[in-house]
Structure formats: C-alpha cells, structure tokens
Specification:
The chain is an alpha+beta fold. It has helices spanning 15-18, 38-45, 83-90, 112-132, 140-144, 147-154, 184-190, 192-200, 205-216, 314-332, 352-376, and strands at residues 2-4, 46-49, 59-78, 96-108, 136-137, 161-164, 170-175, 219-234, 250-266, 272-276, 279-283, 291-294, 298-299, 305-310, 337-350. The chain is globular and about 60 Å long.
Length: 379
C-alpha cells in the first residue's frame, strides 16, 4: 500500500498480495515454513554474534523473557526545497509551501490480558525449545526461588512497559506473568539515572542477575521477541544531499503479522567476579555474550485481521486544513515558505483468536531456530 498526499483510500488487500514484496524494496526475504523443522531453516533466518563463546555451554536458565507487541505504527514524510530552491528564494523568484504527511496504524481487538497469555506461552515454549535443542535447562521454579532472582525483578519496571517511538509508534513490552521488565536494554534507557544510582550501591537489576548466574552455576539466557502487525516506510524529509527539491511525500504500509527478536546467552565461563564496598559483583563483557537474532522477519501467511478503517478524526482534518491554508497564504506573501500537515489514521481490526494463534506460532518458530543455531555453535 502507498499512502500519499493525494490518496487516502487504503484497499483491503489479501495477505497473498501483501506477501509479494517487502516494504523496504530490498532483496526478497525467505518464506518461513511453520511445518518445516527449526534446524532446517535456522541459517536463513538467524544470524549469530560472538558465537565462539558458546563452547562448553550446557546448563542454562531463562532469566528474563519479554515479548514486545506493536500496538501503533506510524511514519511521516515531507516535501522540501533543495539547494536550487533556496537560491531562488534568496533572489525573490520562488515561493514554496511544503507538506508533511503523517500516517498511523492502530491495532484494535486484542487485550493486554491476551498479550500476557501470548507472552507466557512464548516464554514457556522458549525453555522447552532450549531443552529440545540439547541444553540442560534449570527449571523456572528453581530460578524463581533464588533471592537474587527476586531482587533482580524487584528492581525492574512494571509489566507491561510502554515504549513510544516517533510519529505515533507505540509498543507494549510484556514480561512473564509475575515478572517485571528487568532487561537493561529497556530499563537502562527508560530509567537510566535510577539504575546508575542503584549500580553505585551494587543493587541494580543487572548486578543481581550477575550474582544469580554465579549462585546457580548456569549460563543466563535473555529472550526478547517482537510481534508486529504493520511495517511502515517513509521516503524521508529531505532530498539526498539537499541539492534538489523533494516534491512528493509518501509512506508505504504493509499490513502483516511478523516476529523478530534475539536470544542472548551469558556464559558462566566468561563471568568475572570481584568485591566492591563489601558486596560481590559479577560481570560478563558484552562482546563475550553470544547473541542469536533474526536476520529476516518471520511472517505468517494466515489472515489475522478483519478490516482496515480510516479513523482520521475531525480534529485531524481541521488541523490539516488550517495548516494547508496557512501554507498557501505564506507562499503568496513573497519569498517565505511553510510546511502544511496532512494527518491520516487507520485502525486494523484484529481477529483475537487468529492473532493469538499466529503470534504463538511465530514465537515458537523464532525461538526454535535460535535454540537450534545456538546448540550447533557449541560444536
């Protein structure tokens, strides 16, 4: 789908058509086959980093598991004057009024309780798939009973944790039922100052995690999965190098259910411990942590939504109309320029049962391939 300043209609296209190409226009991604084995597809979907440190890894425990759900997806683009246009305006020979296009998609129909169920099943499945791949998996009950685990999650952020991006993009990060969001990639940026003070006192979530790894004598595993329903790509806000006018603004949208993510291992053999201010601290260098992440998103070919509605509000339309009028008046005034705003909102009505089922299938596929590739890296 292509949304532009002159076309606000979004046809309801079959998933088969949507799957025909990627929004990025890059080399076509491989098709994920839910019926094929994880090991047979791992090379096409999973890439490894620091995998040499998997040597000797056997006893593992899932210390954190988070599923991030896309609930709003947004992007913007705008026209802009280039070098020649600026020069012309300097001589009073050109007037310009630019337009900024903002497009958002909101997923509706699935509750936070259903997202919690999906996250629980994805994380339970992650442990099972690590075991199927040949790892010795420490039971969750054993890990939860450890005081360092309890302290780690006491320092985390409440689940679900809301993450907001640009142009109206919004995600909900959901941990396992009863867990907080303790991964430093979330709480390190969202509450970095607080975590820094806690680290100075030896009580940050990451420090408790290090003690937990040593106490249980295991390799820690951190699982992060992203389930998204829409992929938007903007053609940007300025021309290449700024030397030419950019006279169009568009946002490409592909509505499809996808899964991306990574599985990070913290090898016990790479852990170093020391005493500081009377407290033991343990750390593993980041470049000694093997990470197995998606190089290509897993995409479902099944229908997961019933319709797409244009839900642009009266206020949105009024704002667009006012800014366009102001832009026109400014352009009529001589050498000045302005940027009008064009806002369009869409709602993707999810089919709850289909969304939940397909999200679970994609999560299992991702984790199965990551576990298989991690196991093969031990050889």
């Amino acid at each position: 789908m292509n949304i532009s300043t002159g076309n606000k209609a979004v046809p309801v296209i079959t998933l088969a058509a949507l799957m025909a190409g990627c929004a990025t226009g890059a080399i076509e991604a491989p098709a994920y086959d839910a019926k094929a084995s994880a090991a047979s597809q791992a090379e096409r979907f999973i890439e490894a980093e620091n995998e040499k440190y998997m040597a000797g890894v056997d006893k593992v425990g899932v210390l954190s598991c988070n599923v991030m759900f896309g609930v709003n997806s947004g992007a913007s683009a705008s026209t802009s004057g280039g070098f020649r246009s600026d020069a012309a305006r300097a001589t009073g020979t050109t007037r310009r009024s630019d337009v900024k296009v903002t497009v958002t998609y909101a997923a509706k129909g699935v509750s936070e309780a259903q997202m919690q169920d999906i996250a629980n099943q994805a994380c339970n499945s992650a442990e099972a798939q690590l075991a199927d791949a040949g790892f010795q998996v420490v039971p969750r009950a054993t890990i939860k009973a450890n005081p360092h685990y309890q302290a780690m999650h006491a320092e985390g952020r409440e689940s679900p944790f809301e993450y907001k991006g640009s142009a109206g993009t919004r995600y909900l990060v959901v941990g396992r039922d009863g867990d907080t969001i303790s991964d430093p990639r979330y709480i390190g940026t969202a509450s970095g100052l607080g975590q820094a003070f806690k680290a100075a006192g030896g009580s940050s979530a990451q420090q408790h995690e290090g003690r937990l790894i040593k106490d249980l004598g295991l390799t820690g595993v951190n699982v992060n999965i992203l389930i998204d329903f829409a992929q938007l790509e903007s053609d940007g806000h300025s021309s290449f190098g700024g030397f030419a006018n950019k006279d169009s603004a568009s946002v490409d949208a592909t509505i499809q259910l996808t899964a991306r993510g990574d599985v990070r291992f913290q090898p016990l053999t790479e852990q170093k411990c020391w005493s500081r201010f009377g407290k033991e601290e343990c750390m593993i260098k980041p470049n000694h942590m093997p990470v197995f992440s998606t190089s290509n998103a897993l995409v479902t070919a099944s229908t997961f939504y019933s319709s797409i509605e244009d839900v642009t509000t009266t206020t949105d339309k009024l704002t667009s109309g006012i800014t366009k009028t102001l832009g026109f008046l400014s352009a009529m005034g001589g050498t000045s320029s302005s940027t009008a705003t064009d806002i369009t909102r869409y709602q993707v009505n999810l089919i709850p049962a289909a969304y939940e089922s397909e999200s679970q299938n994609l999560s299992r596929g991702l984790m199965g391939m990551a576990a298989a590739k991690a196991a093969s890296a031990r050889q």
